[in-house]
Amino acid sequence: MSSEDKTRGCLTKAQTLRASGNYKDAVTALQSLSEHGVPWGPMYIAALDLLGELCFSQEQGVTVDRFLPAFRWNRYKLRGSQHLEEGTKRIVEITMKHLRALGERSQANAKAAEENPAEEDLIFAALSGVSPAQRAKERYLVPAENATQLVGNELLGFNAIGHSMKMLPIYLDTATELITYCQKRNLKRAIGRIADAFVRFFKRFLLSPVPSTVEGDNPHLIATYKELEADREDFYKAGAITERTVQVFSHLLQTLTSMNNWHAAWSTLQCFTRVMHEITQHPDPSRECQILANLAMAGVFWKCSHYAFHAHCLGLAAFLIDDKENVVDTASRAVLATLCAPNINREKKSFGRGSDSIFEKNARIAQLFGLQSAPAGLSLWQRLQRMEVLQRAHPEVQALDKLLRNELADEKVAKQAIEQLSVIVQKFPGLAMYEKPLRKVILQRYLECMAAQTTRVEASSLQIGETQASEEVYIHEIEPYILNESGISVEIDHKTGSISFSHTTKTRVLEAFTALAERVDRHPAAPRRKLDIRPEQLQRAHDRSSILHRLQHICEETAEARRQRAKEKEEEERENFRLERIQNEEKKKEAARLAQEARGLAEYQEHINQNRRKVALRRLQEKYKGFVAPATLIQKNSTEFVQELTARLTEHLKRTTQQKTADVTKMNHFERACREIEIPKRKAIELEEAEQHKAERAAARENFLIQHRKEFEKRQLDNEILKKFLKEAAVFAEQTQMKGKASKRDEQQMLLQKEKERLQGL
């Protein structure tokens, strides 16, 4: 049997088994394609397509993981052949086709189950508290997402497609398709698994060191490492492949941030920065790749509100762009992002809530770019000036930058900045994303300026540049920013609509003491003379200092203990309140669950009772023909149902009995009339039948007598014949009797012989 016939036989057998519904045996039959004797060809592709269809159907216990070995033995068959590129594309197309079909099928099934839940699903939802939508998601959408994770992890592995110059474009296209598919279906867990596989691939392909020596001089490992080094060199030399890789990384980062998968986004960003570092270390790095990478990372940092690194990446991108038309927009974005970036040294508060975690995150991100710490706003601005990016921005943006360069902004400067920002947003809609952060920056500068000048301001005056103050804007935007983000100690009086700065009074008292100290007469210094300090004086001074120090230490410990006890008491009260609230919520949930369960059980019991009433009504209708009851009767409760059914059945039986009695009476009258009509005829018939019976009896008597006479005459004839043999019979009987009887002599001889034998025995 040729290899083509063997492939055709496997395909035919699998198709027959699938038609009969035996999916597992069909998949087992197609597993024989892994043998080395089966070549790649049209029949092999058709068999792979059928294998994918069976495995992605997920019916009768067949799962997707039974299709995954096909990638391995498909690569073994195609390695070193001319069909390597085409065969890899085909198996990827087959996989993605069936994966999309699985996703569409699961989406349709979940939607149908959610919109039209079955009766058992409603009963299960009432008993367990799991909604039909959640149950449909667990039954259909979660298995489809798990299949996507398996397929993505296998396809984007290091050995499934390959990393040579021919196979890397296929790998990147496959990764793009998988990322787009996950984004379209909103598969958050699957996109994380795909990102991990993609990162592992490039860590092994570009970042892992290639060992110079191999233990045991394994020729296979040596050839593998040489092939990897050659593929790396080809990757860095090919600008198109490098740019395509950066595009896929950028697409993956944008998708992860849009789906809020920050863990996978962080690991991807770490790998991406290392890959870009390797790309830039080689000669003639592509400027387009660096621009695209920096813009993608800037988008990620903007999404997670790290404005300093957003400005850092935009500044690099604007510096690398040669096109004068495109550089203006990017440079303007970089300048505005620099204005949004905080001054790290000024913003650092050792005892601020969450400050440690913020600086730790900034330090981790800074390590990716080779920085000591997160860049401050001033350093970013100086960097833009050195790279001549600031001069390339729009004039309106440069004017706003000039207004906000000062750390403090009074009301006049703040109004000018707000007006200039409105002009920029109206003229350049692409820069509208920076409006809200810049308004917060202007408000922060204005608050700091007012805190240094006065102790109280009106809340309405904080809506700078607005023609009409809006209470809604103040409540939802300004006041939350002042309390949570500004870092300025204030006291807000909602009754009078005013804001008081808490630290202003302290500042003014310190300024008053400073002015008073300047006006006080200074005492002249004491004349220099030789001091006679004795050891006991030093000891007393030392003891006094020790006592004071211990007293201070005791006071501090006492105060700290009081603070700690107050804090613990407050935390305990807060914890008790939280636990009490949790218990109340749990009680409410339990009560709601019990009520819902009782309601579901009542509905289920009512459903069972209605079915039983239907059965009872149907049996009564079968037993009593003509009995009719309305359909609404089964919807009544048990007592009303029994009472009304009994009444209707009694009425039906009464009506039926009366009808039967009338029919019987009518039939009796009819039969009596018929008998009266038939009596004369019956008498004539009876007389005729009596004469006939009499004649028949007489004939039978005559026949009996004749037969008896014949038998008597026959017996007489037989007796006459037997009389002739009576004499001979007597003689014969006597002879027979004599033959069988012993004589007296013989008996005496026999007794004598027995006596002799007895005597001899003695």
Topology:
Layout: H1 3-19, H2 23-30, H3 42-57, H4 69-78, H5 84-115, H6 119-128, H7 132-155, H8 168-185, H9 188-207, H10 219-237, H11 239-258, H12 262-281, H13 287-303, H14 307-320, H15 324-340, H16 344-347, H17 355-368, H18 377-386, H19 395-404, H20 411-427, H21 435-453, E1 456-458, H22 471-484, E2 490-493, E3 498-501, H23 504-519, H24 535-623, H25 638-723, H26 726-739, H27 744-761
Antiparallel strand pairs: 1-3, 2-3
Helix pairs in contact: 1-2, 1-3, 2-3, 3-5, 4-5, 5-7, 5-8, 6-24, 7-9, 8-9, 8-11, 9-12, 11-12, 11-13, 12-13, 13-14, 14-15, 14-18, 15-18, 15-19, 19-20, 20-21
Coiled coil: 551-599
InterPro entries: EIF3A
Protein name: Eukaryotic translation initiation factor 3 subunit a
What is the C-alpha radius of gyration, as a whole number of Å? 55 Å
Order of helices and strands: HHHHHHHHHHHHHHHHHHHHHEHEEHHHHH
Low-confidence stretches: 345-355
How many strands, which pairing sense, and closed or not: the largest β-sheet? 3 strands, antiparallel
Overall mean pLDDT stands at: 81
The structure class reads: mainly alpha
Number of H- or I-type helical stretches: 27
- State the end-to-end CA separation: 103 Å
Q: How helical, in percent, are the residues? A: over 70%
Overall geometry:
elongated
Estimated share of beta-strand residues: under 5%
Order of adjacent strands in the largest pleated sheet: 1-3-2
Question: How many strand segments?
Answer: 3
